[in-house]
# Entry
Amino acid sequence: MKYLYRGFLPVLLLVLLAGLPLKSADDASDGYHNYQALTQALKNIVSVNTKIAKLQSIGKSLQGRDLWMVQISGMQGGSPEEKQALLIVGNLEGDHVVGSEVAMGMAEYLINGYGSDEKVTEILNKRTFYIAPRLNPDGAEAFFNKVKFEHSGNFKPRDEDYDWLTDEDGPDDLNGDGLITQMRVKDKEGDWIIDENDPRLMKKKESDTPLDELYKIYTEGLDDDGDDLYNEDGPGGFNINRNFPHNFGYKTKGWGVYAVSEKETTALIDFIAKYDPTFKGQPHRNICAVLMFSKFDNLAAGTGIESGTPTFPQPAQAVRAPVMGGMRMFMRGGRGQAPTTPQARPTDPQPKKTEARDESLFKAVSEQYKSITKIDSAVSDKPFGSFLEYAYFHVGVPSFSANLWSLREDAPARPAAKKTPGAGQEGQSGQTQPQTMDRSAMMQRFSSMRGGGAASSTASSNNDEKWLKWIDDKNEGHGFVNWTKVNHKQLGEVEVGGFVPYLRVNPPADLIPDLSKSHAEFAIYLASQFAEITMDEPEVEKLSSNLFRLTIKVHNQGEFPYVTAMGSRTRNITSIMLRLKFENENDMKLFGGNKRIDIPTLASGAEQEYKWTIISPPGKQIDITLWARNGGGTTQKKIVLK
Ligand SMILES: [Ca+2]
Ligand SMILES: [Ca+2]
Ligand SMILES: [Ca+2]
Ligand SMILES: [Ca+2]
# Structure
């Protein structure tokens, strides 16, 4: 990345000349796997038991890295595609690397436990687990760069400041510490002052603040392209976890040119939904729930899914004509068109909330999550455009997201959380923003936001204070780069400092084994809740010498309903099918009714009875097939009419 080198050498010299210590920051990626290490680790994990586990690539990232998927399914209970499946996905956001580590740890837990751990063996003989640990490997790779700059996209080149150049001015490591943090610069037009309670933090100016105490804050770096904006267009790309079609934010930068514009997004949707001619169907429609790791949470703090208000494209608005004689005239743009009646503002038809009938399911799962993982609080953005929403609102299965690290005991909140969801840019903090901005300030704001957590600590919010407390009390003081003076060739004397990138997104690696274990236990619980569609032994009653009544009772013995309320709305999940096959079609006739019955839904614990009257000579056989793609596969029974 040329921008790094361009800035680095002269700055290194500056730093040396200034006699500043070259601090070696803690390497945030210690104990985490880069792409190569992850690939090798996954191969090793799967090789432990290839009878139950296989590693496949479901596609390539933009930069050509494999999107790995581990399939784990025990040796009993039917083929992996017949068994009901839990899909686990991590690291859709490039910076949320912890998600991939925990997902991989869960795969290891399940594979190693098969045959030795009773719970693991039992669940794998009933269920299939699909685990895609790192859906955004290109973005994740930045976590392992020599110079760390926190951001969540996939590195697709894009022009963020509309100057027809892509990625022409990224951040630069001015103090040579390998971290992109922030710069604060004295500026009479600035909006920030040093927080008197903790001079590491900045806060918004007050009305009576003397002008010489004001600062501007920038992402660390030079103006590489001489447009008087600092780091306004660096490498970033699009956030995969905002690129899914449900409630896609059309107007928000960084979320995709259009919904599903990114290869990584396509690969995951294809895995779930694509028709496979060899399979003669969609092989992964056995997925009954989704568990993902991301910056969203609907397990620890909240339940269900609430989308917020993404920008929905509006059809061309009617142009309002001047008010004439107290009567409003409306007409469409363009000459010669007849005036039209006032149009109602078009409303967004996409569901925004969990269906009421599904709320209890989400709540029950959340309670179990808290009890199993001991994580009972989290901060979450509204998940519009995320995979979490796609899985629930489009596929129709229950979907859950765990944040893993936004909260730790007394340092709970990840500062990048928005207070006004949907209003702004990726990575925007909940802090107050200036009401009006010129273009320069706006671009500056964009560029600082793109950095996510590292650059969002522009004011002392509660969260920042909490993180500093955590850093001081629990992380031996590591995690904040103290402000130090650097000579900036364009801005003069600046101070460089701020939170270490990635610190507030990914925990220290020594916490990962515990997170993997508790989340594997949770995944086992979750997979055990799926609908289980069964039938009792069929009953035959002889009504006369050649007239019989057949009764079949179908049950859902699982904890989840067969099809969520959203699932019955989307009609994306195949109905349960009950079918009779007569031994001899000529001799045997139904007295009304149909040999095939489709059962679209069956609540948890529900029992449904079906009756047929059959005209047939005695002694004839009927084959009965119960088929529930999302409810345990195929059950077959035979009965003889007598
Ligand atoms: Ca540009
Ligand atoms: Ca730096
Ligand atoms: Ca620039
Ligand atoms: Ca720059």
